[in-house]
Automatic annotation (TrEMBL), chains A, B:
Domain of life: Bacteria
Keyword Transcription regulation on entry: yes
Gene3D superfamilies assigned: Winged helix-like DNA-binding domain superfamily/Winged helix DNA-binding domain (1.10.10.10)
Transcription regulation listed as a keyword: yes
Record-annotated HTH arsR-type domain positions: 8-103
SUPFAM superfamilies to which the protein is assigned, alphabetical: Winged helix' DNA-binding domain (SSF46785)
Protein name (database record): DNA-binding transcriptional regulator, ArsR family
UniProt GO molecular function: DNA binding; DNA-binding transcription factor activity
UniProt cross-references to PROSITE patterns, sorted A to Z: HTH_ARSR_2 (PS50987)
UniProt KW keywords: DNA-binding, Transcription, Transcription regulation
Pfam family for this entry, one: HTH_5
InterPro entries found in the cross-reference section: ArsR-like_HTH, HTH_ArsR_DNA-bd_dom, HTH_MetalResp_TranReg, WH-like_DNA-bd_sf, WH_DNA-bd_sf
Length: 111, 111
DNA sequence: TTGTATTAACGCATTATTACGATGTACGGG
DNA sequence: CCCGTACATCGTAATAATGCGTTAATACAA
């Protein structure tokens, strides 16, 4: 997208944006939901479940791993992915904090 | 970003992803925080505050308007942007619902 | 009417993202 | 050891996003 000027924003703002961006793709939402639904670490029947090619899934998994929300452990010939519970909670808290800012003060004053 | 295959995902998943993606840029995070901090609808001293050119800010504002999280009303020669409180709450609830999925069942089983 | 200020729209160059085929690596079965 | 399975990585085409210069469009002031 052309280069993003991260240097003019605060570390917090960039962090938040990176997290949001990582979640900003339906395939990655689907992957997370699927991993949770299966209740156990799922390898790549994700390729079977979602209609995407294996390299594409692998790429999305890597992006999710980048923000730490999932982790993968080698399980023989396949790889086992699961939610990093600690990180999941941490991200949940962070987003919650963001949305807990009082957005009501403006309302009614003008718009 | 290359085409995203939205047709193979559910409407909910696509909606969530679009919301996350819209928030996935530090400038847009900064804009929201600034609007909230000022407690009143701020026009484009955003251009002064953030170090980005006016057309760039305008573009980010449009993307935020696209997901409905802010609204803009004409105020004489300038435009007044503020949080759409209802939408803000709605998005907050939606993200909360997503993160309220029980992610703990997997943990301990394997990874 | 003629500026002036504030935004939006358009278009361009640059960089990122998505998706996938081809290729490489690692493991286990035979 | 060889082969098939399961993934990751590389390379590439297509497309989307950033950022900004330039150009309208609109409202207000003089």
């Amino acid at each position: 997208m052309g280069i993003t000027k991260t240097e003019i924003f605060s570390e917090k703002q960039n962090e938040l944006a990176v997290t949001f961006k990582a979640l900003g793709h339906p395939a990655r939402i689907a992957i997370l939901q699927h991993i949770i639904k299966q209740q156990s670490c799922i390898c790549n029947d994700l390729v079977q479940e979602l209609g995407l090619a294996q390299p594409t899934i692998s790429q999305h998994l890597r992006e999710l791993k980048n923000i730490g929300i999932i982790k993968g452990t080698i399980e023989g010939t396949s790889v086992c992915y699961c939610i990093d519970e600690e990180m999941w909670q941490s991200i949940k808290d962070e987003l919650n904090a963001f949305f807990s800012q009082d957005a009501s003060v403006c309302a009614g004053k003008c718009c």
